[in-house]
Amino acid sequence: MHKKALAFALTALLSGQIHAEMTHADSVNAGKQKVASCVSCHGEHGNSTMEMFPKLAQQNAGYIINQLKVFKSGERKDPMMTTLAMSLTENDMVDIANYYADQKITGEHEEPLNTAEERTEHETMIKLGGDLYRNGDLKREVSACIACHGPHGEGNQPAGFPSLKSQHASYLVKALTDFKTGKRANHPENMMHMIAGKMTDAEIKAVAIRIATMKQEK
Predict the structure, then answer these.
(1) How many CA atoms lie less than 13 Å away from 161 in the CB half-sphere?
(2) Domains delineated in the chain
(3) Is pTM beyond 0.70 here?
């Protein structure tokens, strides 16, 4: 038994060492082979075409790794993602995250605005969303999104804050609403719960629309 345990530990150690020595390109290529089960929801190269599923292309790798870990632990609840994450090793998570971070995100498809009323409403939402994103609302203690997610929605990799720009507006509305209602409860220090909880439904929609129109550059 001791020999088997030692052999297993040695194999795990060597595997981890080998992975640590992989180049970024090697990790990306390895990740490409590991995302087959992700494509049906998150799309080819991480650009989901279904608005209920987030785009993963060009997302900060550290954020993806963290989310896969909390799905695996059950801290973040989603039956499908938990099942998929349970089968992943930490090396798998790193490879998958590096693959998606290396992809180019596509811009949002915008539905044509056919009437003057639709155009006016859209412009109003963009203006409201842009103001909240940049400035927040100090009177109601709604923090500005720019503080964590950057001036262009690029996120903050070292701090673990996700990239948001060009994400589906519908998905962003769902995510903010889940934070607001407490359905999504894994965020450190409840930062997003405190912010989203003070936002109106109209403000959530406006911010989501503004973020979706931000174009991703590489």
Answers:
(1) 16
(2) 23-101 (1.10.760.10), 116-212 (1.10.760.10)
(3) yes
